Fold each of these.
Amino acid sequence: MKKEEYFMRLAIEEAKKAADQEEVPIGAIAVYRDQVIGRGYNLRERTNDATSHAEMQAIRGANKFLNNWRLRDVDLYVTLEPCSMCAGAIVLSRIRCVYYGASDPKAGAAGSLMNLLQDDRLNHVCEVVSGVLKEENQKLLKDFFKDLRKKRKINSRKHLR
Amino acid sequence: MKKEEYFMRLAIEEAKKAADQEEVPIGAIAVYRDQVIGRGYNLRERTNDATSHAEMQAIRGANKFLNNWRLRDVDLYVTLEPCSMCAGAIVLSRIRCVYYGASDPKAGAAGSLMNLLQDDRLNHVCEVVSGVLKEENQKLLKDFFKDLRKKRKINSRKHLR
């Protein structure tokens, strides 16, 4: 298995932890010298914290592990294209390379709506590799929302009785 | 005193707490129905956390206070124009209005480099009021960096002895 697929599978494992808690399944992993030093998954609903995205937790974990806010030789693997908040945090922490799975045409800030990771007016420019295990990552989100719609339908039927 | 100046002065008080800890003085306050429900100041160096910006702490405080990730009737007062991470977090949390003091021509994402707070492709658009106590906020940062350069000069002299 290619290294980037190996680490993306670990990010997918994180995303599944979110789905298990009925959160939108997005997961992230921070890697330093082939070692996982930060991980996270979306927990917005459960924590009621708008900033509780997978990437933010993985970055904070890596900051803590290295005892440094600069993550110069750290790579980030994330199942969905980062939003502008997370892309901003990635640039601020000087992450080397971002590997992401599915694109986010509605809010993606790493190539879709904008590309904050490679805006040379900012004080750091990342490498970006998109579409890592793309189909698998797209399916993960698609299945989650399909399931959610099904559950909502059942709940609204219950309500009618 | 105008209401926006009153709350901006509270944000300046937060910024001064950062300066007292030798952090770049940036402060923020979250206000809901004229009540301060979140506050924060820049603590990047002390916490070694790249995401430890004033606005992020104020938003998380407000999320906690309201037990809700949606901050629909919440206003944010911040001494410096938000960066792209913080602007992203502001949009994600649906903050109503952002009042900021000094502009940031190097990294400002609320009008200077870009305007993420008013990008109608995203799922929320904020009101923005810039230049609140502008001179005072500019001076706060200018004095801090002047002082820092002075200290560094003394330290490098010490080093030469």
Note: Residues 134-160 of chain A form the longest helix (27 residues).
Amino acid sequence: MVDHHCHGVLDRDLDRGEFEESLTEAETGGPPEVSPFDSQIGFALRRWCPPVLGLDAHAEPGDYLARRAELGAVEVNRRFLSAAGLEALCVDTGYTPQAILDPPALGRLAGASAHEIVRLETVAEEVAGEGVTAAGFAGKVRARIEACVPSVVGAKSIAAYRAGLELSGERPSDAEVTAAAGRLLRQDRPRVCDETLHRFLVWCAVDAGLPVQFHVGYGDVDADLRRGDPLLLIDLLRAMASTGAPAMLLHNYPFHRQAGYLAQVLPNVYVDAGLATHNLGHRAQALITELLELAPFGKVLYSSDAFGLAELYHLGALLFRRALAGMLAGGVDDGAWTACDARRVAVLVASGNARRVYGL
Amino acid sequence: MVDHHCHGVLDRDLDRGEFEESLTEAETGGPPEVSPFDSQIGFALRRWCPPVLGLDAHAEPGDYLARRAELGAVEVNRRFLSAAGLEALCVDTGYTPQAILDPPALGRLAGASAHEIVRLETVAEEVAGEGVTAAGFAGKVRARIEACVPSVVGAKSIAAYRAGLELSGERPSDAEVTAAAGRLLRQDRPRVCDETLHRFLVWCAVDAGLPVQFHVGYGDVDADLRRGDPLLLIDLLRAMASTGAPAMLLHNYPFHRQAGYLAQVLPNVYVDAGLATHNLGHRAQALITELLELAPFGKVLYSSDAFGLAELYHLGALLFRRALAGMLAGGVDDGAWTACDARRVAVLVASGNARRVYGL
Amino acid sequence: MVDHHCHGVLDRDLDRGEFEESLTEAETGGPPEVSPFDSQIGFALRRWCPPVLGLDAHAEPGDYLARRAELGAVEVNRRFLSAAGLEALCVDTGYTPQAILDPPALGRLAGASAHEIVRLETVAEEVAGEGVTAAGFAGKVRARIEACVPSVVGAKSIAAYRAGLELSGERPSDAEVTAAAGRLLRQDRPRVCDETLHRFLVWCAVDAGLPVQFHVGYGDVDADLRRGDPLLLIDLLRAMASTGAPAMLLHNYPFHRQAGYLAQVLPNVYVDAGLATHNLGHRAQALITELLELAPFGKVLYSSDAFGLAELYHLGALLFRRALAGMLAGGVDDGAWTACDARRVAVLVASGNARRVYGL
């Protein structure tokens, strides 16, 4: 299986508070009486992860964390990344609030080839931080992204976290980019959150021949889900379609049916249910089934969107495999399709589509 | 069963490209490696349609298309329209990008009575194209729609494809319509896409005593799903409610729960899941079940929204029948309702509601 | 079980028209041929309520209403409130279009402790109606709310019915409140529908230490579902989070997945599926299961949102219990969690979370 969007794993031991913070998209703890383990993802973790560490399924959180500490981060990471059963990972390297393993190290743990996804806003903020004129910004950013191409397989936009997904379909003019760059450069710590710049960056990636991943829908509280509906992106997706550049809509929950619609009607749109798959735990099959209502089977990919916790690479992969297999087997049982077609779709979704789009 | 919203069927042989284009709402092909047959609708077609042409279920696309070509369009159309098992069809005659059979011919193929639905924007564009003054536009359109009444059973608005569904609940004044008509008439090829005109047309239909069908939600990429949420239409629906004029919300996916809400709280609102039913294939029952969460059983209708491909008339009807029957039988099995009540609901939804609203 | 949001019950006999109007969120009857009993809630009522009145399940509406009239309102109310099996009720006392029982009387019927929820807009409208200057409005409202505290356990905002849920996260300044109060006081019959005032009222409740209930999503046609998406409230919820004040999102359908997201990412957000649970009838389990996809199990509560009809207190409680038990038992059957964990979650959701948040 190919995990076409994930981040690095934390390479150190975690205390209970850190572990719980890494488990879900909550940024601050809930009330003390509300355990993050009491949730779909918590129950899924307790079902599937303890056996990887030599405990019985459904171990209590305290016992699980004690065993995890006993084994140590290196061994825990090795076990979960290996258990995930991946052949390739595409790693977004632009988000590093803490020290995490780089793609080659992650790939070695997973026994998989590791490929890099360049985060567009990070490139722009690096360029802005290095000292550049407003007029020189566009050229320097463009060159930096083009220079990445030999070593990266895709680009990532986090417009959903900043300006929202309602990006225009027009390429911004040089004058518009220069004006927006001027505003960016006047900030003490330049932070891209301007519709023009997000859009400019997407076109830089398209021009460089890279598939563009978009954060869509579900994420932490900063994601502002109001502006994360993939339908808001339709003008830009249409414009990208005319160039043939693939647009990869990540996460999508709870707008995954809207994302499936876009994957049907636009030739260049691909979708996944990363992050949501492991957060929904026992409900992952319902999610994948809804995603596959309109999305053609050649347009759906797997990603974990795992960050930090080794468990998430394994849980994402395991829950996705079970969800897809369960959905496909249900159809075979009902006579809706043949076992042969089901196997073919499973291969497409688990790895074939990703290999084709990213040229792995 | 009554199909209360469909279009004509293509009366000619189709090559593989044309067939695939007609299968889903995609307007341009996806990447060459992504077959439209690898999708819920493709799998549903391969399950249910080959036997109608004398092949085994799950035939490969190539074999299916070869057999289809061998039989020829006339025979294929006859078989599928007949297999659909319809007693009546309401045919939207306002969308004819290609030559398709007219309602009487479609009705003969189906062995069903065929009724016409007049597309409001088409009437307005015809009037505009014939030469009229801005001041004379409203009267001429109104007269044209009134003149249709003896021969049509309903009207159709495609505001969702143009201005979006956020239509005001106010009747536009004569001055507003004249101003909007002036803008329309100045176009080289008049195309209604003005909120005032869409609204004016709806009121013309209401005044003529016609139920008004609204395209809502799912459609091709031009539909702009962002502006196709039925909740946007609530002011106009409320205003129509005060006159008693039925509003028929078509398609609705992925906003079918919102549509069901409107069907509960507004006395004149009716809903269906046309187009989505056959596109979701094996998931049709999940869709119909969600639609029927809030929508009263006396407010839900069947439509295929089939256009062009004979298979879609059959698939829509078959999948809807199975979905409704499956949902109702599940309730009987659980003791949620009686078999007698289930049968009564099945008759209402399959045909009774349509017969009552359209006076068939 | 704790019903953390309901209203009073009607204490008089009802004719068929009144009964049907009280059954759903429709304000006016549908066409005469469409019975409100032919719906999920109608079928659920006919399944579960007749036995409480000594009839067989699935009794015909006419027989049911005859038996109801025969027993009389006092006996009917006693039977259904008692059958609901509640230990505590939190009663919103601010909506009384008809004479209904007050919390103590409702509690006696139910054999449960009854607590009051103060409706914020009602307080503001009472103060405005008593004669106050614009400059004195804020202080008098604030004092009135603070004076409630010993006797109420929470406050309720109906911003969704008036200005919509897009409330700013900023506390309004005194000058802003005074200006808004001036506009309110100039109305003949003061009716709060101003974003500033709704927001001011929420902060009064927060400052008084009260959990704040928000109407979200599903309600009658006045609720304007377009502006009832809980994501619109995110700025205010974030601002409340910094104070620790609990925000209770009520109803939520069809935006319950969005509400579950907010319950995961914000420490102070709690959710329920009141009103929708009994309206969806046989589909209640699907609803609760979707709500529990992202919402931590320590953040989900039960409410009926029953108003007027005694049946709704019972139906809400029964359908919620069955839905939660069915969802939890399904996980136990699949090995997704243990029976012990399932029991623990059942207790949290049915009563523990409510007791903790409201300090019952």
Note: The CA atoms of residues 217 and 229 of chain B lie 6 Å apart.
